[in-house]
Amino acid sequence: MIKKLRGKFILVNMISVSSILLIVLAVFFTSYYQKSMWNTTFFMENELDRAMGGSSYTNIKIGRQDDGNPPGSSGSSGKTNSVNSTANGAKKKNFLFSVFGLSGTKDPDGPGNFLPSVVFKTDSDGNVLTTNERELTVDAATSTALVTEALSSQDSSGSGYLKDYGLRYIIRTSDDGSNYMIFADTNFEQSNIRTFLISCILIFVVAFILFLILSYFLARWTLAPVEKAWKQQSQFVADASHELKTPITVILANLNILGSHKEDTIAKQSRWIENTREEAERMKQLIQDLLFLAKSDADITPVIMSRVDLSNCLEDRLLGFESVAFEKKVELESSIEKGLDVIGNEGQLKQLITILLDNAVKYAGQTGKVNAQARRTEDKAVITVCNTGEPIPQDEISHIFERFYRTDKSRVHKEGGYGLGLSIADNIVKSHHGTIRCSSSAEKGTVFTVELPAVK
């Protein structure tokens, strides 16, 4: 069950993380792709404008210039043209993704290896008049084929892509009716896009593996309380079944004995009847305790809170235990401060005190002592119940409030307990926003201390 739950946790977590990671990488890749296309188009427009006689693009660069001038400046003249401003604006618009942009010179002296291109000037019929090659050489036949295909496949903006040649092109018409066409090699552009795509895939794979490892440890850490609760619940069911089995077995055995002596009177078989009654009472008490704990866990028990005199509750319970202590030859002492008021449920508080006193009297030992105190400490009402007897081992003190836990199973069973009393006491104290703790030693005995918020 826990393994399946852990697996579902990891699966859901990885689906969520992977989806977010894919979206983020897709946004970055799309931005990079658009940036690359924009850079290529900007370069082609620049070259085409100069071929048509324009001079506004002289010495424009993408990125920071060597002389320290920002993008969009016109060198030493300090003049800035309209397209220059557009380039600078586009750079600002894509600042978040500028780290993925291309860089290179766009001066008229030569673009280096930035983007090989060729510019054709044609007449209105598509005949090539002039050719301006910039690191892209084409023969006459290829030039005619490029021009013809470009004129027939251009879109509304006068641009397009020739897949067979791997060339992007832009067509502009001058005032005299001639056409200017630029064809640019996109190998550099596509290579950068492929490289970035591979980088994104590697980032996704590495991040996926790291998140998978992290999810595994997070699942173990997050589900640790659930796993503990599941084990406790399984143990609780097993222990409850075992404890219910014992009285039922005794009752059935007694009934079989009674059934085998049908001719006897009730007086003759009274010990079996009495034994059956005692076992039924024990089973009833066990079921009541189990129901109390189950309702406490489900938080479905409506608890009516009111102002309660804790001093009177302790005095009342001590009075009820005087006869029990006398029969066991246990000396019962008390020291109670008057007027200790708390906000709580009187019935549950009396049940809490009963559990502590019953536990103390049972294990005080022959001629032992039990001391109960109630006092105020600052804003707390404190009840302490101390008994002599065999101390609880230190390594078991942290477990005594667990359900069905017994430090000495044979002794507890002999005393008629099930190991639920202290667990119920712990639930009552928590429902009253208090604390309960235990200390035990041979010198001071076993001391249970309960602190509850006191009414000022």
Observed structural traits:
18% strand; rod-shaped; Heat Shock Protein 90; 14 strands; five-stranded antiparallel sheet; alpha+beta; 10 helices; 456 residues; five-stranded mixed sheet; Beta-Lactamase; Helix Hairpins
Give the strand line-up of the largest sheet: 4-3-7-6-5
**CATH fold description of one domain:** Heat Shock Protein 90
- Count of helical segments? 10
Sheet/helix structural class: alpha+beta
End-to-end C-alpha gap:
49 Å
CATH class of one domain: Alpha Beta
Give the fraction of residues assigned to helices: 40-55%
* Regions with little confidence, pLDDT below 50 for 5+ residues: 55-113, 410-414
3D shape: rod-shaped
CA gyration radius, whole angstroms: 45 Å
Proportion of residues in extended strands? 15-25%
Number of strands: 14
What number is the mean pLDDT?
A: 79
- SSE topology string: HEHEEEHEEEHHEHEEHEEHHHEE
CATH architecture descriptor text of one domain: 2-Layer Sandwich
Q: CATH superfamily assignment of one domain?
A: Histidine kinase-like ATPase, C-terminal domain
Biggest sheet record: 5 strands, antiparallel
